[in-house]
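debug: dumping io for the single-chain case to check the tokenizer round-trip. Nothing else runs in this session.
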Amino acid sequence: MAFAGVLSDADVAAALDGCKDAGTFDHKKFFKACGMAGKSADDVKKAFAIIDQDKSGFIEEDELKLFLQNFKAGARALTDAETSVFLKAGDTDGDGKIGADEFASLVKA
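debug: decoded output
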């Protein structure tokens, strides 16, 4: 698992279970359930690096759509509506992507 050593398997499983159906993903609930909301700034940076698949320094829409799959292979993709809400919540400067600082703010919100 990509988050081994950062998040517990049980917390990740519970968080994924809470949003397994299309339309049920809520980033605030997910970050709390998986334990990321309570992690250090360093751990949040590690999480950002994992989610930033193309290593561009930003999490773009296509990476957000596959967000849950970073936590567990085979997890569902987010719906277009969920992805849009997630991106809007994190993209505070309006550039259409989420930077590391924006992601940290999103996790801690």
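debug: round-trip ok. The CA atoms of residues 15 and 30 lie 5 Å apart.
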